[in-house]
Protein 1
Amino acid sequence: MTGPTNAGGAVPSKDGTALRGGSRATSRLSLRHSTPLIVTGALLVVLFIAALLRSGSMGITGQALLTGIISGGVYSLLAMGLTLVFGVLDIVNFAHGAFLAVGLYITYEVAHQAGLNPYIALPVAILGLFVLGLLIQLLLLNRTMGGTLERQLLITLGLSLLISNVLLLVFGGDPLSANLKSDPGVHVFGAVANLSRVIALGGALVLAVLVFLLLERTSFGRAIRAVAASRQGAGLVGIDVRLVYAVTFGLGTACAGAAGMLIAPFTTITPTAGDQFNILAFVVVVMGGLGNVMGAVISGVIVGLVEQLGGVAIAGQSPLLGVFILFLLILLIRPQGIFGATSS
Amino acid sequence: MRTRSFVKLVAAVGSGAVLLAGCAGGGSGGSSGDAKVIKIGTLHPLSGANAGDGTQLENGVKLGIKAINDAGGIKALGGAKLELDGGDTKGTPDTGQSEAQRLVGDGVVALVGTYQSAVSANVAAVAERNKVPFVMDVSGDDAILSHGYKYSFRMQPQNSRFGTTAAQYVKAISAAANRPVTKVAYLHEATAFGTGVYQAFKAEAQKSGLQMGPEITYDAASVSDLTTQIAQVKASGANVLVVSGYYRDGVLAAKAIQTVKPALDAVVGAADGAFDQPQFPTDAGSASQGYFDVNYHFDDKSADAKAFSALYKTTYKDEARTGAALAYDSVRVIAAALEKAGSTDASKVRDAIAQTNLTPLTLSDGPIKFSDKGENSTSLPVLTQVQNGAPVVVYPQSAAVKSPVYPANPGQ
C-alpha cells in the first residue's frame, strides 16, 4: 500500500527505515495521507447532503453536525489514551473502558459524598488514574513486556473484568448519576447542546493539546517517542525504558479517567458504562493509525460526525452503520489507518 | 500422637459437616421426618450491564422462597423446604444456556428467570428439551413462546401488548383531556424489543386513525447523546412522542428533550425501562416531570404488595421494583403447583402450573392464568406518570391511584 499514499508529493517518512511502526506515537500529521482523507471528506459531504435531503431541514442537520463534533471530542480523548499505550508499549488495552468507569465513580464520590461540583473531580480523576495506571504497568505489565502479545492482552482483559466487578461489589449494579445543579442548553447557529457536553468537548481539546505539547516539546516526550521508535536504541542511549513504559501507561489511563469525569454529568454511571465506548474507541484508534495521537483526535471527530449524520441520513438503522461502512472503506484503501505509518 | 489428633480433627470436621448439612436441609423442621429439599433454579444477570435489575429479581426469588418456607414449606410433600440454586447469566444468552444446563443437572424442579429476552429464548429451549418447567418473570419478546413450548410460562405481558395498549391509552387520555393526539413520533432502540413494541403500536394506532410521524431508531449499547434524534422529533411537528428503550438511554432521552424543548403534549414510554422506575426522577431531575410509561406495575392497592415492598426495603435497603414482585410471584406459582401436584415429577408440576389460579402482586385483570401458549393472560399493562418526583399509576381507572395530568408539557 505505498502507491497512492505518496501521491501528495510530500517528503517520505522521516525514518524511512523498515523499522516497525516508525512514526508511531508521534503526534505529527503529514499530507501524504491525502487519498483516505479525500475519501473521508467526500463521504462526510455525501452524508451531510443525504442527511439534509432526508430530513429536509437545516435545523436537524445542523444539530447532527454539532452533536457529532461534541461526541466526537469524547471519542478522541478516549482513543488518544488507547493509541498512546499501543504506540509506545504495543499493548492492546482492553481495560480502557473500565478505567473510564473508575473516572465516573470518582466523580460520583466527589459530587455525592463530598457534595462538591463534579468538575472538582477532574484533577482527582486524572491524578488517581495516572497513579493507578503507573502501578499496573510497574507491578503487572512490565514483567510481560517483550513477551508474546497475548499475555498483555489477557492481563488487560482480566483487569477489565476485575475492575468492573470490584465496582459492582462496592457500588452495586444500579445506575447512579452525578448531575450538575443546572445544565442549560447552549445555542450555536440554531442547534443546541447541554453546557456539560460543551465543557466535555473543550476539556477534550485542552487535554489533547497538553498531550501533544508533552510529546513534542518536553524531553520526556522525546524519550517516549524514542522508546516508541526503538526500545533497544532508546535503552542504549540511557533512557529508562521501564519508567517510560510506566509513565506512558499512566498517561493513557489518565486520559480515560479524564474522559470518564467529563462525561459523568450527562451519562448514567454503572460498572460497565465504559463498555459502550470500547468498540468505538478501537475503531477510532485503527482509523487514526495505531499509535498516532493526532490521528486519533481527528478520527474521533470524524466518527462522531459520521455517526450523527449517518443516523439522520439512513433512518431506521443503527447510527453506527455509517461508522462501520467508513471503517471498512478505510481498511480497504489504507489498512494502516488514515494517519498510520506507511511501512508495515 | 500425630495420628490421634489427626483422627480427632477429621471427626470434628466430619461432625461439623453433618451438622451443617442437617441445617441446610432444614432437618429439624417438618412433621413427616424425611422433609426433603426442593431446589429452584434461578437465572438472572448478576453481573454485567443489567446487574442492578438482575439483583432485584434474584432478591424477589429469595423473599418468595423464604415466605413459602416460613409458612411451613410444601405441605403436600411433608413440609419440604424450597432451596435456591442460583446461576449468573452475565446477561449473555450462551452463559444463560450453559447455566440452565448446569441447574438442570443439579436436579432443580423448576427454573425462574431471566430478565433478557435473548437469554430467556435459549433457556426456554433447554427447559423444553429437558422437560423442566421454566417460569419467566421478566422477558417480553413475543417470539419466545411462539414455538409451541409446553414447559415455558411467562408472568409479564408480552411486548406486543405494551405497544397495543400504549396506543389505546394515549388515545383515551388525550381524548378525555379534550386535546386529542394527532401525530405520534416514535423513538426506539433498534433490536427486537424496541422494534417489536413499535410495530404493535403502529398497527393499533393506524387502526384507530392516529397519524404516525417519524420512526427514529438508535443503538442502545453505544448511544451517548440523543439530541439529534429529539431535534428530529421537534421538526416533525408531532404532539406526542412514544419511546421504547432501556434505562440509560431513557435518561438520555429525557435530558435531550429538556434541552431541545420540542412542543409536545406528552412523552409516553411503551415498556420503557426508565420512565416508571423509582430512581428515574433522581437521575433525570426536573426533566422527568410528567413522563408517562405503559408497563407492568405493582398493585398499589393490594395489602400483600405493600407488605412485599416494605419487606424488600427492610431486607435489602433498596426500593423494590415491579420485576422483584414478578420474581416473587414466580416462586409462588411453582410452590402452588408443587402443592397441587403433590409430587416433584416435572410433567406433573408442569400440568399444575398450567392450571395456576393465584392473585398476583402486580396489577392484573384477575388471578394469574396461563394460556395454552404459556402467556399469563390476565397480566395488565398500566399507565404510570411521574408526579411530584415519583411514578404513580394513572390509567386505567380501575387501577389508578391518581388522575393523569394531560397535556403534561414534558421538558418545559
Note: The two ends of chain A are 9 Å apart (CA to CA).
Protein 2
Amino acid sequence: MGKQMTEMLKGTLEGIVLALLTGKPAYGYEITTLLRDRGFADIAEGTVYALLVRIEQKGLVDVEKRPSEKGPPRKVYTLNTQGDEYLKEFWTTWSFLAERLEQLRDEGN
Amino acid sequence: MAMGWIEQVTGSLEQKKQYKQYKARTKQLPANYRTAIEALERYLTYFGAITKGETLVKMLEDLADLFEQSAANGAPIRDIVGDDPVEFAETFLQNYSEGQWINKERKRLNEAIESVAKEEVP
C-alpha cells in the first residue's frame, strides 16, 4: 500500500468501519475480511484492531464477548446510536471534502 | 486512603499481578508471535513513556488479545502488524495517550495558549 494511500486512509478508516458495521454486528477478524472484500486489501489486522479499540473508547459501538470454537472469546461490535450519529457526520464531512476536491480538479483542467 | 502503605512504596500490587498475567499469556503464544509481541512491548514501553500503570497494563492486555486472536486464526505476522510495524505501533499507542508522561505537558501548553488567547481584543 502506497504511503499516500496509508495517509489518506488514516482519516477515513473510522468512517469506513462504522459504515461496514451498519445493520450487521461483526467481530474483528470479520471486519478485516469485509474490508479486504471491498478492495482495502493491504490493511493490517492490527490497524483495524487499534481502530476498534478507539471506537470502543469513544463509545460509538457496543461490545459483547462471545465464546468461539477456536481460541479466546471474540468481541462482537455493534453500531450504537452515538456511532450512528457519528457516521452521519462523517458522510457530511466526506461529501463536503469530495465536492471541494472535485471543484479544485475541474478548475485545474 | 485508597492504597495500603506497602503499595505506596512498591507501586500497585494489583498492576504487578496483571503484568505477570500478561507475561504468562505471551508465554503461551507460538514462538514467532511471542517474538513479535515482545518486540512491540519493548517499543511501546520505550517510545510510549506511559507513566500511568493502569493505562500501561490495559494497553498490554489489549495487545495480548490481538495476538491471541491472530494466533487462533493462524494470521501471518505481516498481516497483523503490516508492512510498517512502527506505524502500527504508533497508531496503536494513540489509544493510550492519556497515560503518557507528555500528556501533562500537552495540558500545560494548551492552558498557556488559552490564557493569552482569551485576553486578546477581537
Note: Chain B has a mean pLDDT of 89.
